[in-house]
């Protein structure tokens, strides 16, 4: 599963508080409960793929790029002075003429693409 409206999701993720625990672990405020958090883990590999896990229902059911993963990635990027954009197709991402990464869900047709720019 991919999110239907990635730009709206990114806007929602922007409002979530994310606390970096270490370079692979981020705790992100839940969108649904004022007292709940989700744990996101992130691993990068050399080919530009990002392996992300989250404790929310969307991720548990095979969804890629929940708002918590987006918030976690944006928070990590901001620490390096970078800002991210998210795309539902590789073609849209390549059009940006920037470095392209993707969220790997284990299925090639279920990727969300990411470009990075100076913040
Ligand atoms: Zn999540």
What does this structure look like?
This protein has 119 residues and is α+β, with helices and mostly antiparallel strands. The chain is built from four helices and seven strands, in the order αββββααβαββ. The chain has helices at residues 6-14, 57-60, 67-79, 90-94, and strands at residues 18-22, 25-29, 37-44, 49-54, 82-87, 100-103, 112-118. A seven-stranded mixed sheet has the order 1-2-3-4-6-7-5. A hairpin with a 7-residue loop joins β2 and β3 (37-44). α1 crosses α3. The longest helix has 13 residues, at 67-79. Zinc ion is lined by residues 38, 54, 56, 58-59, 66, 68-69.
How far apart lie the N and C ends?
A: 29 Å
Shape: globular
Number of strands: 7
Strand order of the largest sheet: 1-2-3-4-6-7-5
**Structural class by helix and strand composition:** alpha+beta
Q: How many separate structural domains? A: 1
Bound molecules: zinc ion
- Proportion of residues in extended strands: 25-35%
Total count of helical runs of at least 4 residues: 4
Order of helices and strands: HEEEEHHEHEE
Give the low-confidence spans.
none
Overall average residue pLDDT:
94
Question: Gyration radius, to the nearest Å?
Answer: 13 Å
Features:
119 residues; alpha+beta; 4 helices; 7 strands; 26% helix; 34% strand; globular; binds zinc ion
In short:
This protein has 119 residues and is α+β, with helices and mostly antiparallel strands.
Describe the SSE topology.
Layout: H1 6-14, E1 18-22, E2 25-29, E3 37-44, E4 49-54, H2 57-60, H3 67-79, E5 82-87, H4 90-94, E6 100-103, E7 112-118
Parallel strand pairs: 4-6
Antiparallel strand pairs: 1-2, 2-3, 3-4, 5-7, 6-7
Bound molecules: zinc ion (ZN).
The site of zinc ion (ZN) has 8 residues, from helix 2 and helix 3.
């Amino acid at each position: 599963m991919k999110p239907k409206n990635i730009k709206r999701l990114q806007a929602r993720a922007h409002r979530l508080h994310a606390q970096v625990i270490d370079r692979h672990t981020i705790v992100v405020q839940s969108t649904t409960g004022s007292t709940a958090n989700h744990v996101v883990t992130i691993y990068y590999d050399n080919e530009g793929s990002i392996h992300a896990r989250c404790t929310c229902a969307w991720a548990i059911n095979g969804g890629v790029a929940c708002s918590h993963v987006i918030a976690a990635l944006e928070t990590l990027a901001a620490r390096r002075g970078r800002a991210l954009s998210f795309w539902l197709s590789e073609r849209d991402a390549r059009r940006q003429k920037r470095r392209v990464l993707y969220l790997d869900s284990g299925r090639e047709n279920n990727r969300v693409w990411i470009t990075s720019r100076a913040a």
